[in-house]
Amino acid sequence: MKKTFITMVVLTTILSCKTEEKKTAITVNYPKTKMVDSVTTYFGTEIKDPYRWLEDDKSAETAAWVKAENEVTFDYLEKIPFRKALKERMEKLWNYEKISAPFKEGDFTYYYKNDGLQNQSVMYRKDKDGKEEVFLDPNGFSSDATTSLANVSFSKDGSLVAYSTSAAGSDWNTITILNAVTKEKLETEILDVKFSGISWYKNEGFYYSSYDKPKGSQLSAKTDQHKLYFHKLGTAQKDDKVIFGLNEKRRYVGGGVTDDNKYLVISASTSTSGNELYIKDLEQPNSKIVTVVNNFDSDNSIIDNVGSKLFISTNRGAPNQKVVTVDASNPTPANWKPFINETKDVLSTSTGGGSIFANYMKDAVSFVQQYDYDGKLIREIKLPGVGTAGGFSGKKDETTLYYSFTNYITPGTIYSYDSKTGVSKEYQKPKVDFASTEYESKQVFYPSKDGTKIPMIITYKKGTELNGKNPTVLYGYGGFNISLTPSFSIANAVWLEQGGIYAVANLRGGGEYGKEWHDAGTQLKKQNVFDDFIAAAEYLIAQKYTSSDFLAIRGGSNGGLLVGAVMTQRPELMKVALPAVGVLDMLRYHTFTAGAGWAYDYGTAEDNKEMFDYLLKYSPVHNVKAGVSYPATLVTTGDHDDRVVPAHSFKFAAELQAKQTGTNPVLIRIETNAGHGAGKPVSKTIEEAADIQAFSLYNMGYTELPNKK
Predict the structure, then answer these.
(1) In this structure, are strands 172-179 and 160-167 parallel, antiparallel, or unpaired?
(2) How far is residue 649's CA from residue 582's CA, in Å, rounded to a whole number?
């Protein structure tokens, strides 16, 4: 193996203070990064991969590289004069009590609460007399609070509970089983569980899903065959029965028991879009698994049942979703009957209080209708404003349900809802030190490169002068049928307080306008997503919200790919690039963990030459060019990310550091004992957010905060 080294680069960043004529400089000495002679041939084309060695997360060399890069990055960040002030403001704003909607299980009412800056929210309960006690406190699961509560499931009568925990943000979980009344631990934990729900059948046991433990690294090795198990209480995990997935190779398998314990519902898929659907009659001994949908052409889920009558949400023949009914005796699509028809707006559903709630997304904001089980519209629910509403779920016999409402300037508020009268009442309003009334959100529609109209919501302080000099973050995702709907963020609130603008573009590839919108940003149409994002930046600049000198682009996971692709295609368009936990090596993403399941959106380099050529054309790792001045870049990832392995970010940062021209720094911030993002302690979340904002403002030219509040 040939070993060469990148010449040490000394980079000096010269920044003008916006309020004074002072100059400040930070010198960056990038670590030496070894290069190797690694070559892979695709359809006759040789592709060099000099940083392949960074894929080995168990290597001492990789660990040493991570340590060296972090030393350089944090040395840089510590020299930003207002970094501490940003963190302190964020902590102050974050420090308010947060309480979830309550839910009843057995004789207790449960809810989550965070006093303000607790690293993990605590699960509390009250008995019938109103006596409160801590039920589960994840802050004590590990010494550094990096072990989080991932999932909690009660048996139907509330007497038993199984909960899963995630260590260091990993997707691999451990399930613990308790007597819910006494909190006594009942048996040995269930280990090595991944991408799983927990669904009880009576008090006999529960269904869960996992993969065989991979050989090699559990953080990066491929996991391809998901299985549904049943764990019977009082037996060893090794004796758990495989219900589905032993003979059928599916990447994602899930199972859930209907509320009446009548049916087991099984969903199985090979990718993140489209699923088979099955049911099994649990009231009939040794009953067979019955097929409802036998292909992956649509997304299907059973949302409820009344006896043998099944209620199914589907986009089969309805890109924006619809609800149908069918009898379980013959449940195939040929027998489906309309219940809630498709509309021009995207539908999602929930059930509770004897009703079905249709939550529609209209241009990325919510409106909700309530139906009875005969399909009759009861009412449209009046929401507190324009934004995102979620919830409206509970047991059938509960009259009082709860929902949350939020938007970019309104902290998430919980409302109680009487399903009989339709009356909403404010239940829990957070006391946040943020003057929401001083800010506004405006939705605009701008043309993309091919003329498609793309919605974007722009949030800023009222009276902001559109002079092209406002520090602006443009955020996007554009993939996997995921929709970006308005929601409040403490970190974004701090950005707004500093005179910043926060813009969110609803790009193709997302789910804002249903399956057709999603498909328009997949595989050989993926460039549409990047074009949509570029057009968003150009709109913000043309309308003088900002300019290239004051624009940062940001996205995470698939959004990290978005940032990586756009910054390599149009490096002059923005001043700062912030790719987080990104999918950045498009030729090898499918070789790690469950990455092959993302092929519906991306395709793979092994599919055919056309797909390989297309991926190579935009793959961020492969499109960093020597002699180009890239924007100031802060790559962020976690060393325990087993969803999008950190090697993507490692290789991208190494390429940028080797080839960057000009004065803009390119750094990588690698969080230790952290994964893809879920369960990250509040302290780490605040530190990362403050660092990202400090880096952005500093590289836009600020040496002091625009607003010193």
Answers:
(1) antiparallel
(2) 6
DSSP structure class, residue 101: P
pLDDT at 221: 82
Active site (catalytic) residues:
557, 676
Residue 672 has pLDDT above 90, yes or no: no
Please write the tens of the pLDDT for every residue from 34-87.
999 999 999 999 999 999 999 998 899 999 999 999 999 999 999 999 999 999
Range 271-282 burial, b when 16+ CB lie within 10 A, else e: bbbbbbbbbbbb
Any idea which residue has 């049943």 for tokens?
230
Looking at domain 4-92+434-699, its CATH superfamily turns out to be: Alpha/Beta hydrolase fold, catalytic domain (3.40.50.1820)
Shortest CA distance to 299 belongs to which of 329, 333, 269? 269
- Which of 205-220 are b and which e, b meaning 16 or more Cβ less than 10 Å from the residue's Cβ? bbbbbbbeebeebbbb
d(Cα 351, Cα 302) in Å, to the nearest integer? 11
Rounded Cα gap, residues 456 and 474, in angstroms:
10
> Under a CB-based contact definition with an 8 Å cutoff, are residues 691 and 665 in contact?
no
pTM score: 0.94
* Per-residue pLDDT reduced to its tens digit, 194-250: 999 999 999 999 999 999 988 877 778 888 899 999 999 999 999 999 999 998 899
CA 584 to chain centroid, in Å, comes to: 17
Q: Closest Cα to residue 537, out of 505, 564, 569?
A: 505
β-strands 122-126, 377-381 pairing: unpaired
Domain coordinates in residue numbering, the chain: 4-92+434-699
Instruction: Give the three-class secondary structure for 498.
Output: coil
Show the tokens assigned to 449.
């490169």
Beta carbons of 111 and 675 less than 8 angstroms apart = no
Is pLDDT at 23 greater than 50 in this prediction? Answer: no
Residues 6+ apart with CB under 8 A from 389: 359, 366, 368, 381, 383, 403, 404, 405
Identity of residue 678: A
Half-sphere exposure of residue 164: CA atoms within 13 angstroms, side-chain side: 26
Tokens of 673: 């004992």
Tell me how many degrees the CA angle 493-470-437 measures, rounded to the nearest 5. 40
- Please state the rounded mean pLDDT for residues 581-593: 96
For the residues of 138-197, what is the DSSP string, one character each?
GGGSSTTS-EEEEEEEE-TTSSEEEEEEEETT-SEEEEEEEETTT--B-SPPEEEEES--
- Distance between CA atoms of residues 416 and 125, nearest Å: 18
Q: Is the pLDDT of residue 17 over 80?
A: no
Q: DSSP 3-state assignment of 614?
A: helix
Q: pLDDT of 453-486, one tens digit each?
A: 999 999 999 999 999 999 999 999 999 999 999 9
The arithmetic mean of pLDDT across residues 131-145, rounded, is 95
